[in-house]
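Ticket #4471: structure export looks truncated?
Reporter: QA, pipeline team
Priority: medium

Steps to reproduce: submit the single chain below to the structure queue and open the exported record.
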Amino acid sequence: MRVVSFCNRIALVTIAALLANPAHAVPVIPGAAGYGMDTPAGRGGAVYKVTNLNASGTGSLKACIDGTGARTCVFDISGVIRLTADMTIRNGKLTIAGQTAPSPGIMIRGAAFKVHTSDVLIQHLRFRIGDDAVGPAPGNRDAIKLEGSDANPVQNVVIDHCSFSWSIDEIASVWGPHDNITFSNNIFAEPLHDSIHPTDDGTMLEKHGFGVLLGSAETGGRVTMTGNLFAHIVERNPLARSRELVFVNNLVYDRSNMDLDLASQDGLLTSSSIVGNHFKKGPSYTRTNKPIHAYTSGANTLYAGAHVYLESNLAPDTGSTLSAILGLSGGDVIAGLISTTVKPVWNTGLVVRST
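Actual output as written to the record:
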């Protein structure tokens, strides 16, 4: 009995220490690593059951999303939730557990999820947006948007094991004030390149089959993308202006223009660690661009002091040496930009898979 009592005391002391030290918080996905993985999301809160596929009302997914306080959405039903306007997540401490739905799971059709808050986990949903006549403006019809503001920065958000397709603008975007974002084990594929996206002046339609846009942020701006598939996307696989980007263990397949674009905005310095990714051509590829493209001239140029670390990236169609992997948009090479020895940013616990 004394031994048990002593062990119990040790356990209680350990738990108290962990709770007092957020650095040792339990990851929202056990065993996973990435920026924002220490968010509690909806842990410990109310459980909302989604019992119908309506766009709103009692028993709908929106009823859970619009709730307040820590909460988790679970599903008693499967099928398609059809939207004609973006579904905005304004109240944080939310977990959407798509894996709880019976087969074949939940699909979101017609409009995007827009995250406008912090501490959110979204898992195991399918997004197939489409080009229906009724819906969000085609010039801004993504599948998922993380859009922060000064009043509501988007922080500690994890998007995991979801698939996103058939968007009109980007498939996914992160914009405005944001920090600690992870996209893990997702599929980004098949944006509708020849659809209803308008030109800037709105006078005609243009081809716009773009992938993921990661905007800049004056503070924070840390994003992890790990274990994702980017497939059949013209370019922006992704286009990253993130202050800190960890891009690891991703597969980029069948782009027709560019794979990973590294850029900057508003004079902000950026640091990127690009490790263990596989860039593979497909039938749509007809150009000679290299898999990773760093802007060294023009409006998106990486400024002096920026850092890009490259390691173990595989491009079997072009070769995997640094010169075969990396292309520069300008003739000038920024001093100290490229490194193969020191990672400027990384996530503790992140393991590089063999390419």
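Status: closed, not a bug. The export was complete when the record was re-opened. Leaving a note from the reviewer for reference: Residues 273 and 309 are 5 Å apart (CA to CA).
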